[in-house]
Amino acid sequence: MTEKLVIIGNGMAPGRMLEHLLEAAPDRYRITIFNAEPRVNYDRIMLSPVLSGEKAYEEIVIHGDGWYIKHGIMLYKGHKIVAIDREARTVTSDKGVTEPYDKLVIATGSVPFIIPVPGKELPGVLSYRDLDDVGAMLLAAQSRDRAVVIGGGLLGLEAAAGLKERGMDVTVLHVMPTLMERQLDPAAGYLLQKQLEARGITVRTKANTRQIVGDGKVQGVELDTGEIIPATLVVMAVGIRPNVGLAKEAGLEVNRGIITDDRMQTSDPDIFALGECVEVDGRVYGLVAPLYEMAKVMAAKLAGAGDRRFVHSDTPTKLKVTGIDLYSIGDFADGEDREEIILRDAAAGIYKRVILQDNRIIGTVLFGETADGAWFNDLKKKEVDISEMRDTLIFGQAFQGGASADPLAAVAALADDAEICGCNGVCKGKIVSTITEKGLTSLDDVRAHTKASASCGSCTGLVEKVMALTLGDSYNPASVQPMCTCTELGHDEVRRLIKAKGLKTIPAVMQELEWKTSCGCAKCRPALNYYLVAGWPGDYADDYQSRFINERVHANIQKDGTYSVVPRMWGGVTSAAELRAIADVVDKFAIPTVKVTGGQRIDMLGIRKEDLPAVWADLGQAGFVSGHAYAKGLRTVKTCVGTDWCRFGTQDSTGLGIRIEKFMWGSWTPAKVKMAVSGCPRNCAEATCKDVGVICVDSGYEIHFAGAAGLDIKGTEVLGLVRTEDEALEAIVALVQMYREQARYLERIYKWAKRVGLDEIRRQIMADPDRRKAYFERFVFSQKFAQVDPWSERVSGKDKHEFQPMAETDFRVAAE
Amino acid sequence: MDWLDIGTLDDIPLRGARCVKTPNGRIGIFRTHDDRVFAIEDHCPHKGGPLSQGIVHGAAVTCPLHNWVFSLETGKALGADEGSVKTIPVRIEDGRIAIALGALLQAAE
Prior knowledge:
The complex is a heterodimer. Chain A contains 28 helices and 41 strands.
């Protein structure tokens, strides 16, 4: 008969335990889970990327609803267990469900510690623990007001960095003299503080909170010096406490956490516990690696498979803030019997310190460059005597024993039991054997089968190197997808080499980069032409034979070989004279269809190719220029009527749209660029699904980017808020120039942004004025050569051959 | 064989194409990077795309509508696609290009 297994809590630890259990004994239990949170199991350590905007909730779900259905697991969402009856062997939820158990697992996790100061209950005071907290923070961040984060540990700093990314003015209060003092020594703590300050985050150490002030909601934090720091959001991240209330009431043995033996069994032989609520051998844990180890131990116990026991091991600390690399493990306190080796590179912001006792590593702190963390950890774990390599130890693995500085060789030199993935406790040997046994070839497969790099992802590079070593030549990481079959090189590599080698023609690129075909193909030639146009404005002569037909004849080819023509209507504004001219052209050339486009323009469809120059001539007479509706370039800037007419408009959205369009028309981009300007957050111009959009607000202009409404539908991300039209134009132009310089051909802004990171774009465009200006200047320079109306050029005879047949023959004459 | 004079090599852009109009349809005339000239039906067997508007690479052209690739030498679709277009003999004499009238008749039939 199947036994009943009931689990209280649905976090990462029980989720992982179930994976192991279902693998070892799929049919042994009928499983019921009670989750106090109203959702499935998600990756809690990825909350920070959700807060900062680098990931969406859907991307961090570990087990979707389908997983529970597939395994026949009953999941009660939003049910908090309020009582365990050990006599009757039942649990009861706050919604009145009572469930009997044969075996019970308590995985209630931890609760955030709230410092007992006056004002801690005020609305606007949050903790940072689950998705609801992140949701509340994101809501608060919309104000773009001031936030105070109390606590300069791992969670507090990730929260601060995320809120800063979301546009808030952030101050971190930390009670100790340096940040993350439990994981970092003072020197590394200082470097970390400097890096956070460079991002615009204010850090106050030795700051004691006296109370949180506010009338009905938070208005500020008062320090014990009497100083008040204004804030509309206060995040408390001063630590967590094991959540033991339920276990205590049930009469289980509880100290700091729920006490278990090394097989995760509590003082009741039918009740087990795992996760942050557990105390085993006097220790409680907060990082994921030991919790996953507990999951393995418990699964083995429940499955009756072997005698696995939980053994303590140190877990490295990493901070999940993009662009800040730190790594710490073990004991780094000073001591009489201890020695240390330190490397500092002030210019590069690098600090490395290894702490030795009896010639063995007992602790490591790395900042700025953390690639050797795994190696130091391995030496520490194995207690290797390092006296032989003492002189070069601090330089890392690449400098040892005559090994080359090849990072691949460094990974090759790692022992089979060297840990690659700290979160999931996966060693090199496990990855190698899984790849070989299951014939895996992609990173996703390796993640699915071994879990290596599937949690925080910081070891992805190492995992890829292990794959490269194991698979040899057959390993072809997706990141270097060749441009096309004419070359082995990827888009990024080609772009880089074009600049680095000063290649200024398509034949030069093909010669120098050893193209495998005589003159490329229809995939690489348009891409190369764009890279050269964008890379060498003024120097490069556009190769029309490498452009798609639409860009060659400046109209859109239709299914029957005719063309459509869309004249530019700046900001979507037109006049009686313009409409009359269009009507006349339609009549004169018997144009079959006239249609209004989604981008507020008028499209004339079904024009014969031979008629194009004459159509353009007439349109040109009325003052029209090409609308570039065919171009991988700036298409339209859609606008609403803004303050001119609208009773809700906050700024002159029409005027700004026209200004942007007049400034940017004619520029070539990797893929089409569509823009819009809305005069108020009602957003009538639909700016939040465009490549670049502006939402006007009372205080200025909110710039959006990376939206899509085509094959993919995606709302925009916020780039930042600026006060004036001039600032808005500068930021938009700089953003588009960054995109022009970095994106792969045919890659829309939202895909490029996802690849390079929203943070990085915001940092370069909004937080770095010098860089923004440089991008802006480069765009302005390239516009000198781009802003030529292609229609009037062709009306005056350019590329005449394009529009006329080479010869005509009357069939009967020819047949004679 | 009867030949129809259609113009000079310079009338066609390098790695480009022009077309010749006939009462029963168009003929695409292609000039490759190494100055060879080919003539094929200007009509993709897939959805009728005008091949003379496509990108010319090597001795092949990519259709502008859905990216089918045809060999200019054989008229056959390359890669995974199946289909072909008629090829028309071309003669270059003293820098002037002529296409074969007989084949033209057949192609147009």
